Amino acid sequence: NMSAKRAIFHFFTYTIHARPSPGLLLSSDAARFGIDASKPASVLAKKNEVFQELIWDSAQFFHPKRKSTGKVILKTNQTRKDGRFLLKIGCEKRANLPDKNLDDHELSFFPYVYACFDNRPANQILAIQHDASVFSDPKVVAKIIQENANSKLAPLNLECSILQQFDENEFWKFAAKHPKSIHRLQFLLMAPNLPRIRQSIPEAFSEIQ
């Protein structure tokens, strides 16, 4: 008996930052989530739930150059409650294929990658599969999800950013390999939305100083 080949998937991890946005925009969805969009505290308390539900309900994701589509799979009440769920997101491709008369016909198809969400409040992690035959870079998928989410979050006074996680070990490996090539480092710090990180910020900055 031949043993089945094991598929190997490569993923890049990102953090999800959902936060209140400036301005006042009202939405019929506000009542659905029990949000007072005029009060930041009300919006902040519901941000994780809102983000998950709007992604969960999405059927169409938009790409600047071609049509994309998304579908939540393993869609059960348990995965919804856990805040951990799996998304397929595909990109339309076209190819000319011959029929039995050897006449070419253009067909469209949607190869896809997986996006794994862990939307639990203490985590808020997104892992995106890298498959260059579908999307050139996982950052493209992150941007598609981010823009799709923000188009739905804006009326609720929310916005999100999906940022690739910083790999400390890879950075120091690169720095050790190029000791005389790094002349300046610039870090962009975003106000964190994870309670465990927010509490440790004062201590972290005191160590830097």
Quick structural overview:
The protein has 209 residues and is of the alpha+beta class.
Give the SSE map:
Blueprint: E1 11-20, H1 29-33, H2 40-57, E2 60-62, E3 67-73, H3 77-82, E4 84-91, E5 93-98, E6 104-109, E7 112-118, E8 125-129, H4 138-153, E9 158-164, H5 168-177, H6 195-208
Antiparallel strand pairs: 1-8, 1-9, 2-3, 3-4, 4-7, 5-6, 7-8
Helix pairs in contact: 2-4
**Runs with pLDDT <50, length 5+?**
none
User: What's the count of strands?
Assistant: 9
Strand order of the largest sheet: 2-3-4-7-8-1-9
Any idea what the radius of gyration is? 21 Å
Overall mean pLDDT: 76
Order of helices and strands: EHHEEHEEEEEHEHH
Description:
- This protein is α+β, with helices and mostly antiparallel strands and 209 residues long.
- The chain has helices spanning 29-33, 40-57, 77-82, 138-153, 168-177, 195-208, and strands spanning 11-20, 60-62, 67-73, 84-91, 93-98, 104-109, 112-118, 125-129, 158-164.
- It has a seven-stranded antiparallel sheet with strand order 2-3-4-7-8-1-9. It has a two-stranded antiparallel ribbon with strand order 5-6.
- A hairpin with a 4-residue loop joins strand 2 (60-62) and strand 3 (67-73).
- Helix 2 (40-57) packs across helix 4 (138-153).
- The termini are far apart.
